[in-house]
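Person: Please work through this fold.
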Amino acid sequence: MSTALQQGLSEEIVRDLSDARDEPEWLLERRLEALAALEDLDLPDVIQTPGRRWTNLTDLSFESLVDPLNQSDETERVTAEGVEVLSFEEALDDHEDLLREELGATLNPQSNYLTALSAALFSTGTLIYVPEGVDAEDVKIRTEMRSNSLFSHTLVVTERNASVTILEAIGDEGPTENEEGRYFSNLVEVAAGENSNVQFGSLQNLSQDGYCYTLKHGVTADHATINWIEGNFGTRITRSDVETELNGEGSESQIVGAFFGHNDQHFDVNARVWHRAEHTTADLVTRGVLDDVSRSVYEGVQDVGRDAWDTSSYQRENTLMLSDDSEADASPKLIIKNHDTEASHSATVGQVDQEDLFYMTSRSIDPLTARNMLVEGFFVPVLEEIAVDEFRDDVEALVQQRLD
């Protein structure tokens, strides 16, 4: 795969992309480092069992999907009082030192082939900078993809005692004329300062002829909180990784995920948390619904380090299948290296409860309406975890649209 892609990708293309954006030399050098690393990097790890790979990324025709110099998007950035929400072009003018220090510091751009590809080719980016003591809500980034491929990067930096709620949404104009479909890549990194609070909601609803890869990675300082809310409804294949490193004492993280697949959609969703300091807490909650011949793969990892005394870590994943031909796999994992830990994990896969369905139909509710009501109820535990009204309304609307 990498050889095929690199036939159409060169240092000259990366330089042209950087020159068109009038970027400083240090940023160009980082792009070129990521480009050079492609040759030695592998695709993201996928769960495998003997004779079977749960998600196959190797069949993607990246050469026909990726068009680095023709990336186009329309992005609306809405800020709140005291918060700076800047495109990378604006950030280079106003906060170049901050951008140079923090970009790629939280998330390793060379962690796998697709992250390096995105680091070399990103054309749209956003810096969200929350100064000390600022408490802000309703920060929004809404992007409409208008090209065959788009690479995006979002950087969130919060200072001491700051708080921010962010909603990031990605959509497109509809199916593309390219027979291979679209490709969207988004890297998000969050650096949460001491006693700060970040709630980051992400909603992906791209056309179902496309492919999506996202990696969201956060790092906490002492007593900081990073809460992720992830909703996936679009694309043919989605690979989504959401991760938090609890490096600060008393820090916390929650990862909430929801997906709804139909037709032949494939969702590979992963939630990971590393407890590396004392008195840290994590809660991972994912719920998904599958219909037709759609498929899901879930991996959740709670890694408790040797120095992470007094840790609390919980994980639960539930998938509801609406057809006999849909398929789901789940692999929750606990890695505990410290005995002073409270931790649990669970994963369930099942179909609509026939007794519940019979009860509702016996009270004059038609079968389809009854099934839809049960599906809506299935998502309630996830919706209750979403504190952002707009995000919750968007998820509910997409669930209803899928049911209709």
User: Anything to note?
Assistant: The longest helix spans residues 367-383. Residues 2-352 form one domain.
